[in-house]
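Ticket 4471: requesting a sanity check on a complex prediction with pyridoxal-5'-phosphate. Repro inputs:
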Amino acid sequence: MLFPVTYRVNAAGHMEVGGCDLVEVARRHGTPLYVYDEATVRRRASEYVAAMGSSGQVLYSAKAFASPKFLRVVAEEGLGLDVVSAGELHLALKSGFPRDRIHFLGNNKSLDDLRSAYAAGATIVIDGDHEFDLLREVVPDGKRAPVVLRLSPGVKPDTHDHISTGQLDSKFGFSIESGAARKAVETALAHPRLELAGLHSHIGSQIFALRAYEEAMDIMLGLLAELRRELGYEPRMLGAGGGLGIAYTHDDDPPTPRDFVETVRQAMVAGCTRRELKVPELVVEPGRSIAGPAGMALYTVGSIKDIPGVRRYVAVDGGMGDNIRPKLYGARYEAFLASDPDHAPDGKVTIAGKYCESTDILITDIEMPALRTGDVIAVPAAGAYCLAMASNYNGMPRPEVLMLRDGEVEVMRRRETLDDLVAAEVF
Ligand SMILES: Cc1ncc(COP(=O)(O)O)c(C=O)c1O
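Returned structure tokens:
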């Protein structure tokens, strides 16, 4: 699934998403522009919820992309939310996200982060020993905050090193292998202001091979058996994280959300049965696989530079400021001429951004139809970790973001202005 579920080529021969002509939308709203297909967000979110049934919770990972309207759609589909900072929590609360469905993660939470998480009634996912001390200050006498411990199961999934998180050499979580996890459970159980609701792991992102989740589950359950045997402790909830990969190009064929949930659940139930453990509530927290396929980036072609025999650079009006992923992880994308996506290719081009860095290249060597200045190009699968990591580098305002549904356009985030760029400066 490279395109949003409502994608089609309309009678004018243009790309259409959510019943909206993308050439027209780009003309009216300007570019760079990010558009989200509401039907795809709902379809992906509801697929997770349906697969999970009543056996667990699905949290949307706000870090992939968050905006009030988007979070409302996610909440309406019955998901909870995972946030990693007081800022993400603030946005969630201002968007009216149900507080009792929020989990607060992060590897170096500050006192203020923990204060806001506790005040909001969020479940705090403790990532390091330091938090045990901070929580003594945050949770009032006589109260207990529900917490979960993030563990590192020592599994390395088949993804880019920069988005692997579950291995021993990682800044995240208490390692099971080193004994830190066992010690953290003992600390949490003895802590006067905490109620240890469960254990959690997240092994990485953009993962296609589900085997890594089975391995991680097996290691987690090995620890659970030890904890029951030696400490008499059994967690109420067990988090398997997010990380399901998506298609960025036609060659990618990731598992579905249902495949993911069923694999993880079967591994958990079978492993608990084998060890005669109580089956905990399963928690998963996908981000990319909900927001990613729903979003598309639209750019307008500006300058075109031919270096005969070497390369043709086609520069667009966005780039690394709205999508750092090609530079950060070597991510590959495809692009299409929005006014004629099925047009036969005319040769290879390299799509460059407009930032003052030679590494600001969105796509290297992609076959495209002949492109001219003013053409709109669309990049699918741009819904996750693009805007979420966007910057104002080079003094560029961040793009406008739209939600598209049944031919209607709703602005989720307006385009930043030059005054927004200097709003925090002291003149
Ligand atoms: C702890 C945690 N949970 C969930 C996610 C969401 O992962 P993804 O967007 O790949 O589903 C991440 C992202 O890296 C994460 O760090």
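Notes from triage: The chain has two domains: 8-30+294-421, 38-290. Leaving this open until the requester confirms.
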